[in-house]
Design brief:
This protein has 204 residues and is mainly α. It has ten helices and no strands. Helix 6 crosses helix 7.
């Protein structure tokens, strides 16, 4: 089934904007240049996006696969948590790497945009992890008094650290995620809780 003209134009603008942002940077890309590159009129572009920031955010959502994330619900809590942490959109990796430094610099100069970007990118995995941790508590796999919100930082922090400083090295995100989850389960899994209780009783 052929796509409608509106859907086709939307896609052309996103692809053109990403290519231009990656090549020229965000400040060096005007809406006029996006219109010229995409072949879509500027009037039509503004019907879809209120301003350039709105366009940038949708480009970000698109290349991060935020609108098409898989379901992390196999029934294996530990494996699902690991899958959330390791997930990366498999498409557009090369242009993504070229675009990201421009986006980081732009967000540093525009704090309001930076806040919107961080919320947009981080909220899906936070929501998924929050749900899985609560399932783990209900299933008796994790401590009943687990600090769920604090656990999000413990799980996501090391992965973000790797992503910022070590992405592009030989180590894969799946390996990093596995190490993080293994350490978390050793600390907060029910067996870990039982072991700590035995140590406390032995000392007393």
């Amino acid at each position: 089934m052929a796509r409608t003209r509106s859907v086709s134009a939307h896609r052309k603008v996103l692809d053109a904007a990403l290519a231009l942002f990656a090549e020229r940077g965000i400040d060096g890309t005007s809406m006029d240049s996006v219109a010229e590159q995409s072949g879509v009129s500027k009037a039509t572009i503004y019907k879809h996006w209120a301003d350039k920031d709105a366009l940038i955010l949708e480009v970000m959502a698109d290349i991060n696969g935020l609108n098409a994330r898989p379901s992390f619900d196999t029934g294996n809590t530990r494996a699902d948590v690991r899958a959330v942490l390791a997930y990366r959109n498999p498409e557009g990796a090369e242009v993504h790497q070229k675009f990201m430094p421009h986006c980081i610099a732009y967000s540093a100069r525009n704090p309001e945009f930076g806040l919107a970007w961080r919320h947009m990118v981080m909220e899906p995995p936070r929501r998924e992890l929050r749900h899985l941790l609560r399932l783990g508590i209900e299933r008796g796999e994790l401590e009943q008094d687990l600090d769920v919100e604090g656990s999000l930082a413990l799980l996501l922090g090391p992965v973000l650290y790797w992503y910022i400083f070590f992405k592009g090295t030989k180590e894969k995100p799946t390996v990093v995620a596995e190490r993080v989850v293994d350490a978390f389960w050793r600390a907060y899994g029910v067996k870990a809780a039982g072991a700590r209780g035995k140590v406390k009783r032995a000392k007393s």
